[in-house]
Specification:
Helices cover 68% and strands 12% of the residues. The protein has 436 residues and is an alpha+beta fold. Strands 1-2-3-4 form a 4-stranded antiparallel sheet, with no helix packed on it. Helix 8 packs antiparallel against helix 9. The longest helix is centred in the first third of the chain and has 68 residues. The chain starts with a helix and ends in a 6-residue tail after the last helix. It is found in: Cell outer membrane. This is TolC family outer membrane protein. Keywords: Cell outer membrane, Membrane, Signal, Transmembrane, Transmembrane beta strand, Transport.
């Protein structure tokens, strides 16, 4: 589906209205609420909106060169002469309408392209906000997962340390096992402290978006589907990205703007033709006649540039170089879009396999831990083996959670790449967030 500024604006408005109508008793999903707050408070989006409005003014400014201009001038002059001293005063209304000006026409076309580029850049900012909200939200979930894992690991190691101390006191194990367990427990405490700091930092990133503190977020449901998108071949997605990617559209609009600027600069060598008309009302002459005199004029003005010191030729060359630069930039953007579309599609396919493998790794680690604990109880394994097995289990759980978050992050980046990312994706993801 092709995403345009008008489409995004309508969706954003619908989202805003929907969020505004939600009452606290409905228990609105934290992700949607955070996104709504970011819509209202994010300074980057506000700056982009102001920039879009400023860029849109290029159109009426460039169109003005094709429209008539009207001016009013007035004068009063005291004159001292040999024959008489007198005051001359009056006013003149003048109108000028361009009939032929290639430069003004191409400048107008450039204004259209500039206005379109400004609109597309605002669309980019809207998609960027969606991605920043999702990524910041996922960063909090990652940090929460890391903290919960660190806390669980610390508790488990503390129980193991207490068990080892009890066994040492009755002479069942050596002091080295106690030292190993104590060192592992101390490292687990450090990991938990670091995880607490990372969680606080991740909430600060959300506060930057919303302009106010965020107390908690909803976790991702276990049932969230991690599956390949269809089709799995990249060519169809590359074609979609070439038609919908906003970065590429901005580059295309900039290239069109540069092309029109080059045409306008080259038109500086061409003549211009204008229709002129004026009305003059004047009073005060040396002859002593103080009656008002009126003069009406209408005519054509032909201006043929001959030589301007080489400035016109230089400006034309400069604009041509700028046009070439824009073309190369567009080509590079296109190649980047193709590359990134392939990469993200491949990453998504890898994420699906990774999530499945990570889930199986948890089961394997649980089995390995049980076997190691049984070996420790009968004396065939030592406490170091048990601690390592426990660490492997918690690492597997953390890696599984991060693999799911990686899939979501890449999925949203992929949608942005092909130009389909919209607030509906935020709403869809929020349905898989479960309040604690």
């Amino acid at each position: 589906m092709k995403v345009t500024q008008r489409t995004l604006h309508r969706t954003l408005l619908a989202t805003a209205i929907g969020c505004a109508l939600i009452t606290p008793s409905v228990n609105a999903g934290a992700l949607t609420a955070i996104y709504q707050q970011a819509l209202d408070q994010d300074p980057q989006l506000k700056a982009a909106e102001a920039g879009a409005k400023a860029g849109a003014e290029a159109l009426p400014q460039s169109r003005a060169g094709l429209l008539p201009s009207i001016s009013l001038t007035g004068n009063t002059t005291w004159i001292e002469a040999e024959n008489a001293d007198y005051n001359n005063h009056g006013y003149t209304v003048s109108l000028s309408q361009p009939l032929f000006s290639a430069s003004s026409w191409f400048t107008y076309q450039q204004g259209i392209a500039q206005s379109e580029a400004a609109s597309l850049q605002f669309d980019q900012a809207q998609q960027s906000l969606i991605l920043r909200v999702v990524n910041s939200y996922l960063s909090v979930l990652r940090a929460q997962t890391a903290l919960e894992t660190a806390q669980a690991q610390e508790r488990a190691i503390k129980r193991r340390l207490d068990q080892v101390n009890a066994q040492f006191e009755v002479g069942l194990i050596a002091i080295t096992d106690v030292h190993e367990a104590q060192a592992t427990y101390d490292n687990a405490k450090v990991a938990r402290i670091l995880a607490e700091g990372d969680l606080d930092n991740s909430f600060q990133a959300l506060e930057r978006l919303t302009g106010q503190p965020v107390g908690a977020v909803d976790p991702l449901a276990k049932e969230y589907p991690v599956e390949n998108i269809s089709p799995t071949e990249p060519q169809a997605w590359i074609k979609k990205a070439q038609a919908g990617n906003l970065s590429l559209k901005v580059a295309q609009a900039n290239t069109e703007s540069a092309r029109r600027q080059s045409q306008a600069a080259s038109s500086g060598h061409l003549p211009t033709l204008s229709l002129t008309a004026s009305y003059d009302r004047d009073k005060g002459k040396s002859t002593g006649n103080n009656d008002w005199e009126e003069t009406n004029q209408i005519g054509l003005t032909l201006s043929v540039p001959i030589f301007s010191g080489g400035a016109t030729s230089s400006i034309s060359r400069q604009a041509e170089y700028g046009f070439a630069q824009a073309r190369y930039t567009q080509d590079d953007t296109l190649r980047g879009v193709i590359q990134e579309t392939r990469n993200l599609l491949r990453n998504l396919q890898t994420n699906v396999l990774s999530v499945s493998a990570r889930k199986q790794s948890i089961l394997s680690s649980e089995t390995a831990l049980k076997a190691t604990e049984e070996g420790f109880n009968v004396g065939t394994r030592n406490v170091v083996d048990v601690l390592q097995a426990e660490q492997q289990l918690y690492s597997a759980q953390r890696d599984y959670a991060n693999a799911r978050f990686d899939y979501i992050q890449n999925l949203f980046s992929f949608k942005q790449q092909v130009g389909t990312l919209s607030p509906d994706d935020i709403i869809g993801l929020d349905q898989w967030m479960q309040a604690r």
